[in-house]
Amino acid sequence: MAKPVLTISSKNYGAWALRGWLMCRLAGLDFSEKIIPPDDPAMKAEMLLLSSSMLVPSLQHGNVKVWDTLAIGEYLNEIKPKGGLLPADIQARAHCRAICGEMHSGFASMRGALPMNIKARFRGFKIWSRAQADIDRIVAIWRECLKAYGGPFLFGKQPGMADAMYAPVVTRFLSYDVPLDSVCAAYCKRVMDLPAMQEWVAAAKEEPEEIDELDAEF
User: Fold this and answer.
1) 18: Cβ–Cβ under 8 A, 6 or more apart, which residues?
2) Any bridge partners for residue 21, and if so which?
3) Pairing mode, if any, of strands 64-67 and 58-61?
4) Which of 4, 85, 189, 212 has the smallest C-beta neighbourhood within 10 Å, fewest atoms?
5) What is the reported pTM?
6) Using CA atoms, how far apart are residues 9 and 17, in angstroms rounded to an integer?
7) Which one-letter DSSP state was computed for residue 194?
8) Residue 98: other Cβ atoms inside 10 A
């Protein structure tokens, strides 16, 4: 079977691309990347939140093609069960799916007000009330999971699907100088310290500045 191929977008701006890519890394999948150019319509759809059903990222694995980040995560959990993307316990697994689904379908105000931009740093950024409500809900999820499963990641000792789903939020909180309590700040540091995240961030910083409208869209 040919090596799996993950199609992704910008590493600086691509929140969904990061989620899919990080899941593949955490699952232990040996894959190659195909990066679509900035003027590709699929790239624009992901970057500018123009579509609720995006085809980036997508994973080609033999005859199987799967898109949508949640579907990619579920597929990876089936083919790489030892990767531990989902918890072994049925209750924890249900909880994990619920918070992943919440990230997948919710928090539109936070996404719109704080678009992912790894290179940027906005000190003292003013957050409007609707975005703050989303942020409050996210940190409540983090606190609940870290307390229930003992950390250091959302569902225990190793990072999994939930951490991948919330990893772009971590980068947003750093980019936009979002105030966090010590528990959530420590969690953000643990996510950013993951070797896979460091690899992604390093690549994002090397990306050319080609998507100018992103900073003006929101």
Assistant:
1) 11, 116, 164, 167, 168, 171, 200
2) none
3) antiparallel
4) 212
5) 0.90
6) 6
7) S
8) 12
Q: What is the pLDDT of residue 54?
A: 61
Q: Which of 34, 181, 30, 23 is nearest to 104 (CA)?
A: 23
> Hey, what long-range contacts does 40-47 have (CB within 8 A, 24 or more apart)?
40/9, 42/9, 43/9, 43/10, 43/14, 46/9, 46/14, 46/15, 46/16, 46/17, 47/9, 47/10, 47/13, 47/14, 47/115, 47/211, 47/214
CA dist 114 and 103 (Å) reads 15
Instruction: Give the per-residue pLDDT at 195.
Output: 98
The H or E element that residue 105 is part of is helix 90-105
Which strands form 5-8's sheet, in the order they lie side by side? 32-35, 5-8, 58-61, 64-67
Separation in Å, CA 75 to CA 64, 88, 110 = 10, 16, 28
Q: Whole-angstrom Cα distance, residue 199 to residue 78?
A: 25
Q: What is the pLDDT of residue 38?
A: 64
Q: Tell me the residue type at 80.
A: K
The residues with which 7 forms a beta bridge, in sequence order, are: 34, 58
- Phi, psi for residue 172 in degrees, rounded to 5: -65, -45
Give the mean pLDDT per block of 10 residues along the chain (218 residues). Answer: 88 92 97 82 56 72 93 96 96 98 94 93 93 98 98 97 98 97 98 98 86 42
What is the DSSP pairing of strand 5-8 with strand 32-35?
A: parallel
Q: How many CB atoms lie within 10 A of CB 10?
A: 26
